[in-house]
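Section: Multi-chain targets

For targets with more than one molecule, the full set of components is provided together so that the structure can be written out for the assembly as a whole rather than chain by chain. Components appear in the order listed by the source. The example entry contains four components.
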Amino acid sequence: MQNSDAMALSAALLAAAGGLTQRIHEGVVARGFEGVRPAHGFAFVRLAPDGATVTDLATHLGMTKQAASQLVDELVRKGYVERRPHPGDARARLVVLTESGWACTRAAEEAAAEAVRAWVDVLGESEVRALRDRLLRVAPGGRIRPAW
Amino acid sequence: MQNSDAMALSAALLAAAGGLTQRIHEGVVARGFEGVRPAHGFAFVRLAPDGATVTDLATHLGMTKQAASQLVDELVRKGYVERRPHPGDARARLVVLTESGWACTRAAEEAAAEAVRAWVDVLGESEVRALRDRLLRVAPGGRIRPAW
DNA sequence: GTGTATTGGTCAACCAACTTGACTACTTTG
DNA sequence: CAAAGTAGTCAAGTTGGTTGACCAATACAC
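Its structure, encoded as tokens over all components, is:
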């Protein structure tokens, strides 16, 4: 495998990732959620099950806890999350999605499904599934964070 | 295909893209090129064949021409590119790679090849090739730009 | 149990990458 | 050749992050 092949793969991967992110973002906006950035989506993913602490979020997003705290401030201001006292640790605060936050998360899922459907049209379902499985093996437990 | 599948695919894709970018960047730094950011790499790709104008670069990178101009300033200061008069249009200036810029580009290619090699170890060469082909079909001529 | 170190979170000041707006120099169009 | 458009830069402002200092609560050592 030559260097040029590696570059072609890299370029395709980055283009695909960029395009996907853009499509999801557009889909979310089209569903009426304004003022959300892609980074918020990654926060939502982490918050979705049971909430998370600011420090958890910071680790997950690959940023400082101060930056994560600012991001949470912004999401609180926009009504997508709220800070609740942490049961069992009075220092910590649990950041959880509001109903609006859940709605936005569902919108993002729909938008992602829509984007992937376009890929299914090109590659067929089994190929897309194979693509997913290979990516999962190559980026196991990969932290989802800004590409740079 | 369910929404959750789409999310898994999206997450894997973004994680892979992020990881790849990081590895390439680390590889470039390890080869002695300091003060380069991933965004510079995307500029290099565009400049590599014959150079490009600032406006070209801006379009390619998805930013304003002012921002592209600042980026070029920085690369000039670091010795990776230089501005030359544009043959045939006295308004424009052709931004071209210096020898150092070419060396950095080659380093990035090596780093990318190295990162992809790690994938070959996991998936095998034919699978990686298949991955590349599928991504190319899904993101044809995709503009390479920050994922978000 | 009490003192020390660690952890979760915030406030404040700063920085870097990018934006918008205003402008000059050259080119194209009619 | 005048009017409109294009390439590029300068300057100022915004934004999303950083580093550093700090407080409150918890965990650990003895």
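Residues 37, 39, 63-64, 66-67, 70-71, 89-92 of chain A lie near DNA strand D (CB under 10 Å from a C1').
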